[in-house]
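=== Structure Prediction Worksheet ===
Name of assembly: unnamed complex
Input type: mixed (protein and possibly other molecules)
Chain count: four
Listed entries:
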Amino acid sequence: MKKRVYDDACGTAHALELIGDRWALLIIRELLLGPKRFSDLRASLPGISANVLTQRLEELEASAIVVRRRLPPPGAVWVYELTPWGMEAEELVKATGRWAARSPSHDPSLPISVSSLIMSMRSMFAAERAGDLSGTVGLRFGEEEFVATVGGGQLTLVRGAANTADVVVSGSHEQLAAAIYGGVPLAKLEKAGALKIEGDRALLGRYIKLFSLPPKAPDAKALRAGP
Amino acid sequence: MKKRVYDDACGTAHALELIGDRWALLIIRELLLGPKRFSDLRASLPGISANVLTQRLEELEASAIVVRRRLPPPGAVWVYELTPWGMEAEELVKATGRWAARSPSHDPSLPISVSSLIMSMRSMFAAERAGDLSGTVGLRFGEEEFVATVGGGQLTLVRGAANTADVVVSGSHEQLAAAIYGGVPLAKLEKAGALKIEGDRALLGRYIKLFSLPPKAPDAKALRAGP
DNA sequence: CGGCATCCGGGAAGATACTG
DNA sequence: CAGTATCTTCCCGGATGCCG
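=== Predicted Assembly ===
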């Protein structure tokens, strides 16, 4: 977006010039949990084409939101990583997601990426429900592993080895999403073989109750009928 | 954006389908301070064309973010107004603006709309600087009047009659922006006739110190030089 | 395979003129 | 004042291909 400029000193307008292009904010969302390779980004953003991803990454790099870096050997592969300031966009991403979760047209049954699910937990964590709950939960979705630490009314949720946690759940992230947001009982998913749970099952049961979708706002038809 | 869909249950992706189109978030920003007519919106969004504004308003109305309403007589004019859920986008707008204010490429010397300036005060209010400051400040920019109330470490800033406040500043909103964010002394602006101040000058002086731009993040060149 | 350049079709955004 | 109609421009997205 070089020529289509808002010419407005407002921070919101400037933000739109930085990340208002299609896909840009979703790329940032994917990178909030750590560096990724080009093909990882492409795989987790269904529908993006390679040239658009290339262009967005160039723009984000020029804006100092993303840096392209070569990992030290072994690996020695190029990855894209958020700058510290790029990481500060987390608040923006979470505020956006929380607001949209109330949309009357939001359809939670669509496919969801692993990063989206993790970020949704960070966004939707209800501190007041945590009480004195304390413990660690490991999440394993194929190659991707995360550790959630709950304590003192806080949640930290980062990439890490899941097997050190008090309870480890593994399987499809979509199934876990169904348990958290769709109300499907964990026991049922475990019995069906959709999820594997090792360790403190009660902790996992309490953990998934820390998240829930907010009530939906009235849609346009309801507003016309009776405001 | 009907066909260009992200197909993603992530709230952030859904938000982009609702307000990811060009101009949409700026229209919301303009409406956060109250209903506006079509031509008011057009005037405060420099560069938007009528057909795009029409289309955005239709989409926002279909998404239950905006309602089109006829004001009661006298007036009896059509206005666009945020729904209660649309109003909840304020947090999103403020988070966006705060993040972008740290952009190395942000140029605060561009023109700014009245709504942007008001929203920037809401965004950038530094509660820790307020201390026990208490009082009301009236802001008058042509036909538009606002009242800022500071007290208990809180700021409320809404449309209202400015003349009831402890101090009233009137003139060009761009000049006031220069005083708040550009560090131009109020006394100088008043002497030059750019601003008129009536009432408690000291209160206004303390008031404008409640806001400031955050430090800039390093730009892409600096990151390449030494991370 | 990973990353990037090029070409092309469709559609959204922008500018202008015009109407009720 | 509040939009519509029309035309042009340019971005998005898909396909293909080059290069390491």
